[in-house]
Amino acid sequence: MAIKRRPKRLAHGRPPAAKREKEHMSSKQTRTIIRTHHRLQKELAAALRSGDIRLADEINTKIEKNGGLKVYQAASKLGQSKSRGGDSSKVLVEWLKKAEIIGAKEDASSAPYRLLEVGALSTENEISKYPRTIHVKRIDLNSQGPGIQQQDFMERPLPASDDDKFDIISLSLVLNYVPEPVGRGEMLKRIGSFLRQPHNRRSSMLPALFLVLPLPCVANSRYLDEDALLRMMRNLGFILEEKKNTLKLCHYLFSWTGKSDNKRAQKKLIRDGPGMNNFCIVIE
C-alpha cells in the first residue's frame, strides 16, 4: 500500500549531474532530451503527489539514465545558442530599446535597472551587453558556472525592502518546467513580491515581467489559450505591454500594477482535439 507524503519542492529528487554531456547535439537530439525530461518530471510529480514512492524512485532512475538535469540544461543551452537563434533575451532587449530604457550608448549617470533572471543558463546572452543600464542577478536550480547563483526561486528569501527588489523579472522557459499546474500558479503569484512598487517606477513600462513559454503551451493546450493566460495575468496585477510569437515560442512583457485581486483560476477545458497537450496553470 502506497504511503502518502506531501509533494516535494521543485528541486527535490533531481538526479546527480551526468559525468559529461555531449558538446554537440543535433536539433532533433536536443528536442528529444528536453521533451523526455519534461515528461519524466511530470510523471515524477504525479507519483509524489499520489504518495507512490516506489514509482517515484523508478522515474528518478529513468531521469538519471536520460542524463539528468545537467544534460537537460546542456540541450536547453544549445537550443538558445546564437547559432540556433534561440536567445530569448534578444526579444526583451528589442522591447527595452523601443521603450528607450536601453540604447546604443549606455547612460551611466543613474543607477542601473535591476533584473532577476530565473533559470539562467548563461552569463553571455544579449541582455548581458548592457551592464551599465541593466544589472542582472542570475539564479538557477543547477548553476552552470560563475555568475549564476544556485537557487530555487520558490525558496528565495523575500526582499527586505524596495531597494532589494527588481525592475524586471525574466521567466524564460521556466514556468513550463514546473511539473504541476498549482506550482506554476504559485510561481506567478510570487513574482509581485520581488518587483518594485509602481509608484517608484522610472519608466512607464516598468516594473515588468518577461515571460517566455513554448508556443504549444498557449496555442495547442486543452486548458490554456492566450485569452485565458492574459485574463489570469490581469487578475494577478499584470498588464500586457508587448507580445511576440515565433515558430516555437511565445514572448510576453507585462507591466506590474502592484495590485492583485487574488481570483482563483481552476483547470477548465477550453477546447479539445487530437494532438493537443494538457498544459495548465492553476491559481488557488
TrEMBL record:
Pfam families: Bmt2. GO terms for molecular function: rRNA (adenine) methyltransferase activity. One of its GO terms (cellular component) is nucleolus. Transmembrane segments: none annotated. Residues 1-30 are annotated as: Disordered. Its EC number is 2.1.1.-. It comes from the Eukaryota. It is found in: Nucleus, Nucleolus. Keywords: Methyltransferase, Nucleus, S-adenosyl-L-methionine, Transferase. S-adenosyl-L-methionine binds at residues 119, 140. Residues 1-12 have a biased composition (Basic residues). InterPro entries: Bmt2/SAMTOR, SAM-dependent_MTases_sf. S-adenosyl-L-methionine-dependent methyltransferase that specifically methylates the N(1) position of an adenine present in helix 65 in 25S rRNA. PANTHER family: 25S RRNA (ADENINE(2142)-N(1))-METHYLTRANSFERASE (PTHR21008:SF1), S-ADENOSYLMETHIONINE SENSOR UPSTREAM OF MTORC1-RELATED (PTHR21008). Belongs to the BMT2 family. This is 25S rRNA adenine-N(1) methyltransferase.
